[in-house]
């Protein structure tokens, strides 16, 4: 048997180019479906885990996929906002801990997730350096953002301006980095976290400026005993510092300040069910269970995957047929060699064994290569879930 | 073997499902029990939190004696507040730093939520606009709502309701506090003050007296002298108003009430030139050695004693 193996090996080695092409073809035909399957499994697991770790999402009525993807993965969306008083109202109900989320801005391309310390606790974010963003104008960075931008506590990060040529819009806010979180392997690594009040400064709803009685007279349009009309040219502070922090204030009713969504963490399954049904019955907001939304979404994705699985199967079948043809033709070319074996008294099955063994060798090497390539792909491909 | 393992798993699931969750409430997992119970930054919050859960479970996150509108929490104070099971605060009007600090909304008890919208007193609002934007108002709402006995009771009810679930199973409930009786005593003192004034108005240097005067039916004239202790001269217009008010004998109680910091130099001048005796009145806002209700009641008694007989 070792003699046949030696002969098969020597033949494969002697026809290096043919063997290499065969191995490459088979490896490629195996790598594509294996990688797709492994990626899909990984993706599926990670998506479901993030969704399963989030009991309820509450937001304005509209597209539930948008709401879920925005709240879980900070995907940009055109969600209607929810007034802050809704969070207070639901919190008063006592069925759940409500976590505010505001995600309409970015800083150097990364989403700014304006929330509260409950989010940090809920997701188990731990500061690797510094601390959470607790003050106006402070941010704490996800591990990936800190690594990519090379930032650490004490550095500054500018928000991305929303309307570059509209001077009536608030300017970019220079935010202080208060801390950096440890890597979590989730979308949190790619986000910039701040308190929800900082988002309201970015919105222009809260701002800071010199006291009205200290404003340059050239900027005052009119001044009465109880009112001062100020020119739009009045510069608002573009950074919250220790010196100007006290001048930052809101306009209007704070209960109406906008949120993108809320995470609800119910005390029990029953509380969650009651809260969800109460919210949906009232109709002013919608409450969604992320696992169901993600299941629906993945249902569509995996129907498409089934098609690609079929394509992969065809690819494998076609490759197998081509490889068979190659070996068949090869056996014709080896007629003289097989006849010699026959003449020196080798059993008849040795010829078939020789070709079969060579085919097995090719398959084994191709499978090993495809396995390695799949592992390397999974290792080096960017984490699709964290950048979903 | 497999069946036994399945049975064990099932038993564990049932046991977990039946476990009493009342202690943890809706807290984010694994964080409640190790926290201090209640953190406070003001006198009224301390008073009401202590009445709800017991003084021993109330932790001060702010220093004593610092005016509420001037204090700003440092990192240590913020840490103390976010790590407590509940933070009891008065609201943005009384504690402006709340607009700029990220307290956990689910664990923050805002006492101003107990005050009906119509009960707030608004004075001297200052409105301005920015270019084409909407006009808006800074300040204008008097913050010292706790000085009204009825509003203080409403705040106490909210505080008790909100802190009701904060104690865990093994922690004994707070001994019943005689808060209602003490508020009654304060209210009686305010009535006595109104009787002593007998229709005459009080002159004060700050709007903080508004709520208690409204409750007791006492007329109030406020002359905001804006003396901050820096040696800067007082507001000229307020001084003129004060002189005019002082010159109407029988219309006021002969005292100048200082709800904020009493300026000895001006007090001396008011006594000699205007015939007004200065009396300081502790509104009980900042944390201090005595509790808010004691300070309010004592201040009202001191003021009543200082009222000139008609």
Description:
The complex is a heterodimer of chains A (388) and B (310). Chain A folds into two domains: 2-47 and 297-380, no CATH class; 81-282, no CATH class. In chain A, 49% of the residues lie in helices and 18% in strands. Chain A is built from eleven helices and 16 strands. In chain A, strands 1, 3, 4, 5, 6, 7, 8, 9, 15 and 16 form a ten-stranded mixed sheet that branches. A two-stranded antiparallel sheet of chain A has the order 2-14. Chain A has a two-stranded antiparallel ribbon with strand order 10-13. In chain A, strand 3 (96-107) and strand 4 (110-115) form a beta hairpin. The radius of gyration of chain A is 32 Å and the shape is elongated. The two termini of chain A are 53 Å apart. The model of chain A has no long low-confidence stretch (mean pLDDT 86). Chain B is α/β, with parallel strands linked by helices. Chain B folds into two domains: 30-120 and 138-163, 3-Layer(aba) Sandwich (Rossmann fold), CATH 3.40.50; 179-306, Rossmann fold (3-Layer(aba) Sandwich). Chain B is built from nine helices and ten strands. A four-stranded parallel sheet of chain B has the order 2-1-3-4, sandwiched between helices. In chain B, strands 8-7-9-10 form a four-stranded parallel sheet, sandwiched between helices. In chain B, helix 2 crosses helix 4, helix 5 (179-197) crosses helix 6 and helix 5 runs parallel beside helix 9. The radius of gyration of chain B is 24 Å and the shape is globular. Chain B starts with a helix and ends with a helix.
């Amino acid at each position: 048997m070792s003699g046949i193996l030696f002969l098969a090996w020597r033949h494969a080695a002697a026809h290096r180019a043919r063997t290499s092409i065969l191995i490459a073809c088979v490896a490629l035909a195996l790598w594509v479906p294996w990688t797709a399957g492994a990626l899909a499994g990984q993706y599926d697991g990670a998506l479901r885990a993030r969704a399963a770790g989030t009991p309820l999402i509450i937001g304005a009525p509209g597209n539930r996929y948008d709401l879920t993807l925005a709240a879980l993965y900070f995907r940009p969306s055109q969600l209607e906002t929810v007034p802050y008083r809704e969070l207070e109202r639901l919190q008063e109900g006592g069925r759940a801990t409500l976590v505010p989320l505001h995600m309409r801005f970015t800083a150097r391309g990364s989403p700014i997730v304006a929330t509260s310390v409950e989010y940090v606790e809920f997701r188990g974010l731990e500061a690797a350096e510094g601390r959470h963003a607790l003050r106006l104008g402070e941010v704490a960075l996800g591990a990936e953002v800190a690594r990519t931008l090379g930032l650490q506590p004490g550095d500054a990060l500018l928000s991305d301006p929303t309307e570059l040529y509209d001077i009536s819009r608030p300017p970019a806010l220079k935010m202080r980095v208060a801390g950096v979180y440890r890597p979590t392997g989730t979308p949190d690594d790619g986000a910039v976290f701040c308190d929800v009040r900082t988002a309201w400064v970015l919105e222009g709803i809260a701002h800071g400026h010199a006291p009205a009685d200290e404003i340059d007279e050239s900027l005052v349009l009119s001044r009465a005993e109880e009112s001062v009309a100020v020119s739009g040219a009045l510069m608002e502070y573009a950074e919250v510092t220790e010196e100007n922090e006290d001048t930052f204030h809101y306009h209007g009713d704070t209960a109406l300040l906008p949120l993108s969504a809320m995470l609800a963490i119910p005390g029990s399954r029953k509380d969650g069910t009651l809260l969800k049904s109460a919210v949906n019955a009232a109709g002013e907001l919608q409450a969604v269970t992320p696992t169901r939304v993600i299941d629906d979404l993945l249902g569509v994705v995996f129907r498409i995957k089934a098609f690609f699985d079929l394509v992969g199967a065809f690819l494998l079948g076609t490759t197998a047929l081509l490889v068979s043809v190659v070996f068949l033709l090869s056996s014709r070319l080896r007629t003289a060699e097989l006849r010699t074996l026959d003449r020196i008294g080798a059993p008849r099955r040795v010829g078939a064994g020789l070709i079969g063994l060579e085919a097995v060798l090719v398959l084994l090497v191709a499978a090993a290569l495809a396995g390695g390539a799949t592992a390397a792909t999974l290792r080096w491909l960017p984490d699709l879930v964290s950048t979903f | 073997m497999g069946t036994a393992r399945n049975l064990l798993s099932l038993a564990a699931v049932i046991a977990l499902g039946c476990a009493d969750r009342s202690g943890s409430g809706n807290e984010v997992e694994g964080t409640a029990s190790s926290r201090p119970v209640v953190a406070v930054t003001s006198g009224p919050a301390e008073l009401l939190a202590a009445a709800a859960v017991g003084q021993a479970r109330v932790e001060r996150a702010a220093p004593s004696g610092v005016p509420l509108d001037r204090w700003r929490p440092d990192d240590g104070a913020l840490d103390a507040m976010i790590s407590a099971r509940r933070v009891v605060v008065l609201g943005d009007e009384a504690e402006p730093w709340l607009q700029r600090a990220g307290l956990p909304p689910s664990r923050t008890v805002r006492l101003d939520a107990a005050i009906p919208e119509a009960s707030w007193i608004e004075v001297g609002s200052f409105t301005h606009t920015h270019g084409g934007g909407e006009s808006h108002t800074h300040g204008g709402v008097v913050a010292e709502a706790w000085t009204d006995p009825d509003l203080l009771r409403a705040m106490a009810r909210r505080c008790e309701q909100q802190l009701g679930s904060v104690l865990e199973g093994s922690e004994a409930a707070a001994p019943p506090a005689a808060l209602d009786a003490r508020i009654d005593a304060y209210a009686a003192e305010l009535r006595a003050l109104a009787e002593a004034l007998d229709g005459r108005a009080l002159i004060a240097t700050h709007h903080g007296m508004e709520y208690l005067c409204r409750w007791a039916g006492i007329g109030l004239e406020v002359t905001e002298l804006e003396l901050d202790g820096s040696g800067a001269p007082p507001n000229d217009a307020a001084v003129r108003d004060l002189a005019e008010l002082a010159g109407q004998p029988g219309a006021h109680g002969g005292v100048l009430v200082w709800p904020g910091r009493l300026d000895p130099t001006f007090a001396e001048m008011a006594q000699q030139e205007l015939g007004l005796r200065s009396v300081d009145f502790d509104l009980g806002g900042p944390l201090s050695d005595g509790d808010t209700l004691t300070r309010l009641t004592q201040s009202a008694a001191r003021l009543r004693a200082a009222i000139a007989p008609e």
